[in-house]
Design a protein that fits this description.
Elements (H helix, E strand, L loop, with lengths): L13 E5 L4 E2 L19 H4 L3 E7 L2 E6 L7 E5 L5 E6 L6 E5 L7 E9 L2 E10 L3 E8 L8 H5 L5 H6 L1 E7 L5 E10 L19 E3 L4 E5 L21 E11 L5 E11 L8 E6 L1
């Protein structure tokens, strides 16, 4: 699988399958030279300092402070060394947050705790997404997916058969957003340049760190009408290969994965068997 990034078509629904609500990001706290231990990356002695924990929750960086913390301000420094933001710490406050969204620069961030002009504690965290394509499938082979919720119960099975879902996972340490979904190669209706994001009724889909979601297509890649460059069903069988292309926002690259496909049993797309396997 290669990594790159382009655009998106309009629609696409997402369904969260699994993921942690709060994802701690790898790194070490530098409150006096203590080394990192397994678990959440914080040693017992570090937990006694002002910075209890630094974690990514969805699209927000959360800094948890100890009850004894005596600090006035928290600064968040970007990988390029520039200030991302700063937060005043009210007396007794035990948590502050920075909304990083999906337009941030990936890399190592520094959380700096200040008392007046003096730095009293620091924590470094890598915040970087890693989007991977896990699976792809059609309605006819995966009727348990929430097709009616996505496309509406009024849609016919033949229309749903033309669409596809793509399961993606963010195994990185920061959130990202998929802004385009495309199918190229040996599908009945390959689309190199979708009208919108290619995701059903979505311009983009946010994928938090550690979570897995389903994207539902909007371009009828397996529709009954075969395009000029498409491949369809045959009683003798047709086989080929297609590629899923995702464009994501944070890194500005493409994520791709290729699959083998076989069409057998009928000359009509609605009636034939479509078998998809990893290439």
């Amino acid at each position: 699988m290669t990594q790159n990034y382009p655009h998106i078509s309009r629609r696409n629904a997402l369904r969260t399958i699994a993921g942690a609500a709060l994802v701690s990001v790898a790194g070490c706290l530098n409150n006096g030279g203590n080394s990192e231990t397994p678990g959440d990356g914080t040693t017992d002695s570090e937990r006694k300092g002002p910075l209890n924990r630094v974690a990514v929750d969805g699209t927000t960086l959360v800094v948890e402070l100890s009850a004894e913390a005596d600090i006035d301000q928290i600064n968040l420094i970007q990988p390029n060394g520039e200030l991302f933001g700063k937060r005043d710490v009210a007396a007794g406050a035990q948590q502050i947050s920075f909304e990083i969204g999906t337009g941030y620069e990936p890399g190592e961030y520094r959380v700096v705790a200040l008392k007046g002009e003096e730095t009293v504690a620091e924590s470094t965290r890598d915040i970087e997404p890693e989007i991977q394509i896990q699976d792809v499938g059609l309605y006819r082979n995966n009727p348990d997916k929430p097709w009616d919720e996505v496309y509406g119960e009024s849609q016919t099975d033949s229309k749903k058969n033309g669409e596809a879902f793509v399961t993606i996972q963010n195994s990185g340490s920061g959130p990202d957003a998929v802004v385009e979904l495309r199918f190229t190669g040996d599908v009945p209706n390959p689309v190199e340049d979708p009208r919108g994001s290619g995701i059903y009724e979505k311009d983009s889909v946010v994928v938090p760190a550690g979570e897995t979601v389903d994207l539902f297509s909007d371009s009828f890649p397996f529709g009954s009408e075969i395009g000029d460059e498409g491949m369809g069903c045959s009683t003798d069988g047709n086989s080929g290969k297609f590629t899923i292309v995702l464009e994501t926002r944070v890194t500005g690259q493409e994520v791709t994965k290729s699959y083998s496909v076989e069409y057998t049993g009928s000359d009509e797309m609605q009636k034939c068997e479509v078998t998809i396997s990893e290439a």
